[in-house]
Each structure stands twice: as structure tokens, then as C-alpha cells.
Specification:
With about 160 residues, the protein is of the alpha+beta class. The protein has two domains: about 90 residues, Pleckstrin-homology domain (PH domain)/Phosphotyrosine-binding domain (PTB) (PH-domain like), CATH 2.30.29.30; about 50 residues. Helices cover about 40% and strands about 25% of the residues. It is built from three helices and seven strands, in the order βααββββββα. A hairpin with a 2-residue loop joins strand 6 and strand 7. The two termini are about 30 Å apart.
């Protein structure tokens, strides 16, 4: 049985959204919001403006829901793998659903702007790193273009190699 050699990996990276607030910091933020709202809400309750306390509770609940939603979106990721044959884009959605795209490396073109990073090959397009910041997107584009240029560069075999 003959074995097919694996293609050389020219570039590999894992992309994930950045979250600046750790789970512990999130807990402290919610505690602080509750403390501030109670400091304002209890005097309102004492003077008879009890509905204000309910609205302050809604404020904390909305803040908690928005951050939980942000942490759920942080589960999104992409893995880029460039071989001599193809660019493999493996995506994982926040719900765990996996998607894999394969683009022919020979025809691969990278189009990068601050707004989007697109890999195109034979009419197939893949938008990469939608969740990245503009500087991160441009950095990935530069790294990917350098790897593509290295992959396409001619390789010569000499007797002294």
C-alpha cells in the first residue's frame, strides 16, 4: 500500500475574538453596578419612589445579559492552515457548529482592508476574521501574503543541498 505524503504546512494560525474583561472582572462589575444602584435606589424607596428600584434592577439585568451574550460570541473561532495545495479555513460558531472551507492555494489571492479580509480562489470567496480588529486583520493578511509568496517561490535542488 502506497502512502500519500502530507503537504507541507506553510502557515497556520488560530483566530479568536478578544475579550478584555475576564469572568472575575465581570463579576466585580456586576457587584459594583448592584452596589451603585442600591445606593441610589434605597433612598428612593425610603421617600416613596419605589418604582425607581425596579428600573435600576432592569439596568443591572440588561448589563448582565449583554455581557453574557458577548461571552457567548467569544466562543467563535477560526483556524487557517495554508499548505502547498490549499488554504483550509475551519470555523467554529458560538453554538459549536463547525464549517470547513478549502481554497486552491495556486489561485489564492488575499484582499485586505481595515473593514474586511477576503481570500479568493477560482471564484470562491471566504471572509476571514470578521471578529478581528482592523490592526489584527491587516497583520493576519500580511502574514498570509508572506506565506503565499514563500510557497510560490521557486525551489531549486542542487547537488550541494
Amino acid at each position: 500500500m502506497t502512502e500519500t505524503p502530507l503537504p507541507a504546512v506553510r502557515y497556520a494560525t488560530a483566530l479568536a475574538p478578544h475579550r478584555s474583561l475576564s469572568p472575575e472582572a465581570f463579576r466585580w462589575l456586576i457587584r459594583g453596578a448592584i452596589a451603585v444602584n442600591l445606593a441610589f435606589g434605597v433612598p428612593m424607596l425610603v421617600v416613596g419612589a419605589w418604582p425607581v428600584l425596579g428600573f435600576l434592577g432592569l439596568d443591572v439585568a440588561l448589563l448582565w445579559w449583554l455581557f453574557k451574550r458577548s461571552y457567548l460570541d467569544a466562543r467563535r473561532s477560526e483556524t487557517l492552515l495554508l499548505t502547498d495545495r490549499e488554504l483550509i479555513v475551519a470555523r467554529v460558531a458560538p453554538d459549536g457548529e463547525r464549517e470547513e472551507l478549502r481554497l486552491d492555494a495556486y489561485w489564492l489571492r488575499i484582499e485586505a482592508t481595515e473593514e474586511r479580509l477576503v481570500a479568493t480562489s477560482r471564484g470562491n470567496r471566504a471572509v476571514l476574521g470578521r471578529f478581528l480588529s482592523p490592526p489584527e486583520r491587516l497583520r493576519v493578511a500580511d502574514e498570509l501574503e508572506a506565506a503565499i509568496a514563500e510557497m510560490r517561490a521557486p525551489r531549486y535542488r542542487h547537488a550541494w543541498d
